[in-house]
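ingest -> validate -> predict -> emit
validate: passed (alphabet ok, no gaps, 487 aa)
predict: started
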Amino acid sequence: MNDWLKKKKHWLSILLGLSLALAAFVFNPFGLKDISCKAVAVAILMVTWWITEALPMPAVALVPLVLLPLLKVSTIEEVSKSYSNPVVFLFMGGFMIGLAIEKWKLHKRIALQIVKRTGTSGDRIILGFIIATGFISMWLSNTATTMMMFPIALSVILVMKEHEKPGPGLNNFSLVLMLVIAYASNIGGMATIIGTPPNVAFIGIIEKKYGYTIQFLDWMILCTPIALILLAALYVVLTKWLFPNRIKSSREASNFIHQEIRTLGRLSVAEKRVLVVFIATATLWITKDLFNTLKLFRLDDSMIALMGALALFAIPGGTRHEQKPKMLLEWEDTSKMAWGILLLFGGGIALAGSLEKAGVMEQIGNWLAGFSQVGSFTLVLMVVVISIFMSELMSNVAQVIVLAPVLAALADALHMDPLLLGLPMTLAASAAAMMPMGTPPNAIVFSSGFIRLKDMLRAGFVMNLISIVVITLFCWYVLPLVMQVLK
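emit:
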């Protein structure tokens, strides 16, 4: 029987997705409008096929291009715009910079220096990445942070493979190192207003509706402890519980690291030039707001990433091939790029757009209003739970933009502090940890090939539960002490 199931798994998975989607549309258990019901059915189909791996994940991401126009939820022109979203080009530029770093082995040099300083035990390396990534993400967008750390982490894995025996320990180390980059980027972004776009979106909505500005320091007093607790939980859950690696420090490994550093020698011309482009790109990501205040031009993360990528195609690497200068990056190098992830994220954006256009999120807000009698604490808890799991499939920025006004109106009707519902919803929207399309950092690390979907679901579910508890308790007990109550 088991052999038969394995052989038929592909067709059973396809049939399961179609059956669940059809059942959701026919029976409409949530009492949705017709167009909303169609959008939800498409979402159920895609999620089921993603989870069961009925089709390759990038292939499933193309489903909206077929079904949404076919079901008259959106036009093909509207859906196709999602696949050219600025975030997709941010990924593209970042991936190209990562390719150049890898091509000239700069990543190996950086990785060796990190391992040299943190020690060669698996847990200490992971802890070092959690601290570095979480801190950087407080000041830099979580996507840009992941873009910076991703090639470095890949090279650390390659270095560890050279002196560790293949097996469960090394596999768990590789898996966890990829996961903590994404999760620490998401968590670190919660700590400051500028750490992630949903925070900025929420601040703008509150200021427009109530004329109240949330102070940068007040946000940090409340949210930095949340981030620190979640980062500590991340380390314990992944290294001590779910995926222990048991890679210990050894003199042989330490000697190997030092020998490798000596073998690399001094920076080559190409490495120096790639490093300059990398630092310049990261600097622009950090300081773009300062340039934008001059109003001479306007920069965003996607433009900066593409500027860095274009520079790599234009700058010689210091060597020649057939009498032509060999550039830091050549188009042939992009054959190694994770093009499927660009499609995956485009499909996620298309799905989110269809659910938003169909009014699904607005109906969820109205549904929440029906629980106004359950008690304020329970309502806050419900908002966090719904927000965190909704953001596994939705763009977290779109989610905040749509839900924040709905929750503000609900809070006004219940004579509650609007921040008491809106702020936990915003923080939870950045805590999605189960699905690759939940946040851009999740999608980036999933492209590494070291993460199986079932492992991300397992780790993400546990981190989601911890985030729900921490965010709810802090926002209920600490928020009223830090921020003034809105009238």
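The first helix runs from residue 2 to 27.
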